[in-house]
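Need tokens for this chain, all 141 residues.
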Amino acid sequence: MAETVDEIVQFEEPGDELDQLAYEVIGAALAVHKALGPGHAESVYVNALRVELEARRIPFEHEKSYQVYYRGTPVGAGRLDLLVAGKLIVEVKAAEELHSLFTSQVIAYLKANNLRLGLLINFNCVLLKNGVRRIAYSQKT
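Here are the structure tokens for all 141 residues:
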């Protein structure tokens, strides 16, 4: 029996519950973008998204700190824009375009926090759907 690429690289999708949470966060981001449009500073969008998540009763932590380890030794710290329901990382940008570096950052955040799904949301675009990137990560066993 032939293996799929996902089986070869031992990749698993995060699951329906996490995807539903991401869907709800994207809905909140769409509401913020519809009201504010592009052109504001990143902090404006983070704060507006916080207000929208609270209004929708979606639990989150803002600027959640975490430790980065190398060989079991702490080597630094990081901070997440938003950690939703303790399991979804949301990185907010207000950039001209989504650079590959931003994707690498979200992957690093997922790895450091042992999480499976992140959203990279760039509010500086005419259509927000062009600024949303879903980033799934699964640790090889």
